[in-house]
Amino acid sequence: MTDSAIRNLGICPKCDEIVPLHHEERDGKVYLRKDCPKCGVTETLVASNIARWRAKRDLCGYQGEAEATCSVRCMECDHGKPPTLVFVDVTNRCNMNCPICLANIPAMGFKFDPPMAYFEKIFKKLATYTPKPRIQLFGGEPTVRDDLIDIILLAKSLGLSARVVTNGIRLANEDYCRRLLETGCQLMFAFDGRHPDIYRRLRKSEKSLDLKRRALDNVRKYFKSKVTLMSCAGLGVNDQYIADLIAFCHERRDYIAALDLIPLVETWGPEQVEAGDTTIDDVEQMVAAALPGTEFVPSGIFYKFPTFRALFNMRFTFGGAHPNCESVTMLVSDGEQYRPVSNYLKYPLGEVARQAMALDKMLGEKVDRSLLGRLFGRRGQQVVVGWALVRFLHRVLDLRAIFGDHPWWSIARLAGGLIAGRKFKDLMRRHSRCENILRVIVLPFEEPKNVESARLVECPAQFAYEHPLTHEIKFMPVCAWSVYRNGILKETTRQYGLAESA
Questions:
Q1: Are residues 284 and 200 in the same domain?
Q2: Which end of the chain has a smaller Cβ tally under 10 Å, C or N?
């Protein structure tokens, strides 16, 4: 199929029909322009910085309007891509009522609270995959279910690891927090910052901040694996507090490993939240303003390392995602604060990524023909690629910034520690200026008006659900779920004999 024949499709925001769309660049911004036969032309802002939008595509070698497409009729297919990260809605009840939320009872108009049999059916399907995908238990607010711990243990009994996406309110109860974390589950904890004004404007609940902070203190006391903070980021709402949010993560770096930032996209009336749309590149700029020198790259580039991935069994949750989907960077602690990873590189982060992709391609063409590869098979290939990677890192890393004035002496001590069986992270704290790493991700748009088929085709993150007609367990790209969710979950509620009314 030629590029001209590949049509990008989306959802008309007025009538919800599937319609053609294309990107239009104007006044330094990028819009999704949709042409609906019934409603006419509509536009949705998707990037406020054309240069950044183009740069991500160029880095990934993305060609044209769309390299691939689909019908966007997600209930008629099963996506066809093995899931790496699977979301499962467990309820739409919540102990908050945030005006920005579309996944709770007031917004959906019915109650969704499926029985254990529903989860057993989904988890048994997920357990058939090799490797098994990671699960994220979603809502609503999962912790309002009194049987949430049983749901987690059910997943665990089938060899599945679960992460709970939570607002954290119930974890302010220390006993509950302890019992939940004893299951070994991971947490994605919603925390928009530590200033009350954020919660007054965004959540209409200043008191929730105190509960969240108490909950995080409990998590720190009982955690078994590190936590991801999930924060909405909105222009004029909390952009001025991003630096403080990063400082908060640094103060609690012993148990906070990642920060996921969600662009705030308007889904409410002006009387509810005083904010408009925020784009992915707006959020990237917020972080760069808080920490000058911060650079982001598309998460999808990790799919561009087939040689490294194959030889070292590397798994990337968002590998293969569209270049204008989520983006990622790393912040490195020097013991006093987080600094951009670019402080430790000789080249810009995007250029390092470009050189790494070129290296992977070159190695893929030669590793099978190498002498070590021919003599020792996979192990020999790993040695060839590993040595090339060491030389690459020597070329792109600023060793003095990482290890100080005598880098090779520090590297020798680090290597000696590894040989002695000590943990790499402990050795780095002792022998380098890099004590911790905070992964920062800007998550993609998930609202119906932002859906485009080109972003759905290779999406590795999916919602699992029971199809209302066939009763099979099916999968749907995360960014399409909001289009079909209400109809699916309402029918699921009816089929399990549960009350539909709110």
A1: yes
A2: N
d(CA 91, CA 452): 27
Q: Is 119 helix (H, G, I), strand (E, B) or coil?
A: helix
Contact 181, 219 (CB under 8 A): yes
Residue 97 resides in a domain: yes
Domain end (from 53, 73, 90): 53
The answer to whether residue 372 sits within a structural domain is yes
Q: Are 300 and 460 in contact, with CB atoms under 8 Å apart?
A: no
| Residue 473: inside a domain | no
Which residues, other chains included, contact 318 with Cβ-Cβ below 8 Å and sequence gap of 6+? 85, 299, 300, 302, 325, 326, 328, 460, 461
**Given this model, what pLDDT does residue 419 score?**
66
Least confident residue range of 250-264, 356-370, 422-436: 422-436
Q: Are residues 200 and 330 in the same domain?
A: yes
Expressed as residue numbers, the domain containing 35 is 1-53
Among residues 350, 364, 365, 349, the alpha carbon closest in space to that of 305 is found at 364
- Alpha-carbon gap, residue 116 to 124, rounded angstroms: 12
Q: Is the pTM of this model over 0.90?
A: yes
**Into how many domains does the chain fold?**
3
8 A C-beta contact, residue 265 and residue 445: yes
DSSP 35-84: EETTTEEEEEEEES-HHHHHHHHHHHT--SS-S----S-GGGS--SS--S
Residue whose structure tokens are 């991003």: 242
Instruction: Using the predicted structure, report yes or no on whether residue 240 has a pLDDT greater than 80.
Output: yes
How high is the pLDDT of residue 200? 86
